[in-house]
């Protein structure tokens, strides 16, 4: 384990900037360009355990230490509005009320898996708020920055990123939203 990096018991933290082979290409580029990138660790996991509940159980990571990133899309007056919503894994994004209101759309849907994978350039089960396409809104539940060591996707299923939750609020374009999750 590298000193000074976020760590959790049972996982070996490596500096994410030094291990671009363990993250999606868009995530590696975002980490390099982002001033907070040097405070991010990457940990290898079994790709069959990439889903949050399975990873939490297998590695002893509390659900409240993990953050999920879901992609949603809706239309208003012919214009599509897309957002990534980041919430603690022990909560669910309130897409039917809060997110729909924030995006100012009548109907909002989770992005279909194939489209989410293609447009994010990330693997399903590893989608993360780092390295998403320009123009997508990034909505964070106001409780996410309180996570001491947040576990989030790395863009691929075979690893996760560890970072202080407060750093997620410092991502470019991040919007903290009270009541984003219930």
From TrEMBL:
Pfam families in the cross-refs: tRNA_edit (PF04073)
Entry superkingdom: Bacteria
InterPro entries to which the protein is assigned, alphabetical: YbaK/aa-tRNA-synt-asso_dom_sf (IPR036754), YbaK/aa-tRNA-synth-assoc-dom (IPR007214)
Gene3D superfamilies in alphabetical order: YbaK/aminoacyl-tRNA synthetase-associated domain
Listed CDD domains: PA2301
Limits of the YbaK/aminoacyl-tRNA synthetase-associated domain: 47-168
Protein name stated in the entry: YbaK/EbsC family protein
